[in-house]
Amino acid sequence: MVEQGRPAAEHGLVLVAKLGRPHGVRGEILLESVSLAADELERIPRFTWRGPDGSKRSLVLEGVRGATSRPLARFAGIRDRDQAAALTRGELWAEPAALPDPGPEAAYTFQIVGLRVVLEDGRELGVVADVLPTGAHPVWIVRGARDLMVPAAPPVVKQVDLAAGVITVALPPGLEDL
Hints:
178 residues; mainly beta; Elongation Factor Tu (Ef-tu), domain 3; SH3 type barrels; 43% strand; elongated
């Protein structure tokens, strides 16, 4: 199970990236905590930018370049460093329908958060409350009778049924005892 996206969903929108500092003098800005590849971002026609003070504005992406972990973005109407700086520390949100299909046996994080987690024998462990990205694979924070950190990796994750809202897992020995 590969995950993409951010766990946050609000007012029907999904958090796609956070904006970092401006880059250069032509209005480019670093994308941080970006959840999509450059080509996937470029297929989204419009974003809602939300500032740290709660302000909002609509942004149209003109292009993305650079490293996959921290790409540089340019938006329509943002032509200099000062205009880009005004977007710093803001967030990019998109309509879920605008996001590309994550592919077979994959889901966006916002689709995973809130699902019930059960063992193969049917015993309920709790609900996915958050997702921690790691170098190898994400780790689900499952809140229940006991909080658990469940690796979102194929040997552990047996089935994800988005329609039913249930994830079936087989925990490694001793994980529940930690």
